[in-house]
Design goal:
Keywords: Membrane, Transmembrane, Transmembrane helix. There is one protein chain. By secondary structure, this protein is α+β, with helices and mostly antiparallel strands. The mean pLDDT is 87. The chain folds into 2 domains: 35 residues; 139 residues, Immunoglobulin-like (Sandwich). It contains 1 helix and 8 strands; from the N terminus they run αββββββββ. The longest helix is centred in the first third of the chain and has 32 residues.
């Protein structure tokens, strides 16, 4: 009977120690999980940015109330425009650039921009490998939407994998927020750019 009581006591101590250790680990993990996430870094607006499949360099941002780059606005609308130089870093022509830039802190009726080639207003062209092209990202806005004098644009990058987990093929995956670039926003007169 003494061995049984002693055995039960050891079991209770072991179980209690295990429970305390588990609670301690769970508490620490919860504490670290509750830490605020780090803000993405501020990227330089005047330098080329390596964003995975694209090398991007923002050129200028402005608000326009006139039709520009083939993008017609509805009556009472204006457009937020970001012009940027994009270079396709892949080995094939591509137009997967829609999510590279996203304005922060502004209410967009549609988060997907219209994108045009600046030199000839071609909408959503494929960009060829190694060629740098000036692209215009155009987000229509309500005419009375407030646009700050300086606006941050989130930059999204992707990671190249020689073999993905599902099909074993190469590609660009796992989009993530690389950082933020802040640009002054000009207000163009009615005549457009």
């Amino acid at each position: 009977m003494f061995k049984t009581a002693r055995s039960k006591f050891q079991t209770w101590i072991t179980a209690g120690a295990g429970t305390i250790a588990a609670l301690l680990v769970a508490g620490l993990m919860g504490a670290f999980g509750a830490l605020p996430a780090h803000a993405p870094p501020q990227l330089p607006p005047d330098a080329a940015i390596d964003a995975g499949r694209w090398r991007v360099q923002p050129a200028r941002a402005y608000v326009s109330r006139a039709k520009l780059y083939g993008v017609a606005l509805k009556p009472g609308q204006k457009a937020l425009v970001l012009e940027a130089d994009l270079t396709n870093r892949t080995a094939q022509s591509d137009k997967a650039y829609f999510n590279v830039f996203k304005p922060d802190g502004i209410d967009l009726p549609d988060s997907t921009p219209m994108i045009a080639l600046a030199r000839d207003s071609t909408l959503t062209p494929e960009l060829h490998p190694g060629m740098t092209e000036r692209m215009a990202y155009v987000w229509p806005l309500a005419g009375n939407a407030a646009v700050p004098a300086n606006l941050s644009f989130g930059v999204t990058a992707e990671i190249f994998k020689p073999r993905d987990n599902l099909y074993g093929t190469p590609g660009w995956f796992n989009p993530y927020r690389l950082g933020t670039v802040t640009m002054p926003v000009a207000d163009l007169p009615e005549s457009g750019s």
